TrEMBL record:
Domain of life: Bacteria
PANTHER family: TRNA (ADENINE(37)-N6)-METHYLTRANSFERASE
Family: Belongs to the tRNA methyltransferase O family.
Protein name: TsaA-like domain-containing protein
UniProt xrefs under InterPro entries: TrmO-like_N, YaeB-like, YaeB-like_sf, YaeB_N_sf
């Protein structure tokens, strides 16, 4: 997305950056939500919010096997319409600024969003969930069992695969 140096609020500062290097992330699918504009999106998802769909691309369908065991899962996504150059931000536009890393704003150098969502059901390569806050069509980066749900079940760490 092209960055606009003029579209910043009083007190905000931006970094003048070389084009981003490719971190070689792979999108694993897309997220379908009822939120068509940023204004439609909640600031954070609600576990009782509307149903959304994590649509995993074909090579990764079997990578979902076992996920049904978890009531809540962690979703990572790429907030693709965000600018990426703000060092300080004024989320309310009132001139009161905070550092980007002290905010959960979508505007950050690597616009990764995370949400813990309620898993409603699996439909093949699609996970139906509640609890998201992102635009329809947001690229999907990763899906993990919610760490709280997983920690009590985790076995002693094996020697390989970290
Ligand atoms: N829950 C995530 C987190 O905490 O990392 C994201 C929180 S962020 C405050 C959520 C906001 O990002 C939404 O309210 C919307 O304004 C914006 N947003 C949602 N999807 C986006 C997208 N694909 N690109 C850019 N901004 C997006």
């Amino acid at each position: 997305m092209e960055q606009d140096s003029t579209d910043i609020r009083p007190g905000e500062r931006l970094a003048h950056l070389a084009p981003a290097e490719d971190a070689c992330l792979r999108f694993i699918g897309r997220i379908a939500t009822p939120f068509l504009t940023r204004e439609d999106c909640p600031r954070q998802g609600d576990l009782d919010g509307p149903v959304c769909r994590l649509e995993v691309d074909p090579p990764w369908s079997d990578a979902l096997d076992g996920i049904e065991a978890f009531e809540t899962i962690e979703v990572l996504y790429w907030l693709h319409e965000s600018r990426r150059d703000l060092i300080t931000q004024s989320p309310r536009g009132d001139g009161q600024t905070r550092g980007t890393f002290s905010l959960r704003s979508p505007v950050r150098p690597n616009p990764i969003g995370t949400s813990c969502v309620r898993l409603v059901r699996r439909e093949g390569a699609v996970l139906v969930v509640r609890g998201l806050d992102c635009l329809d069509g947001t690229p999907l980066l990763d899906i993990k069992p919610d760490r709280c749900a997983y920690t009590p079940q985790v076995a002693e760490k094996a020697a390989d695969h970290g």
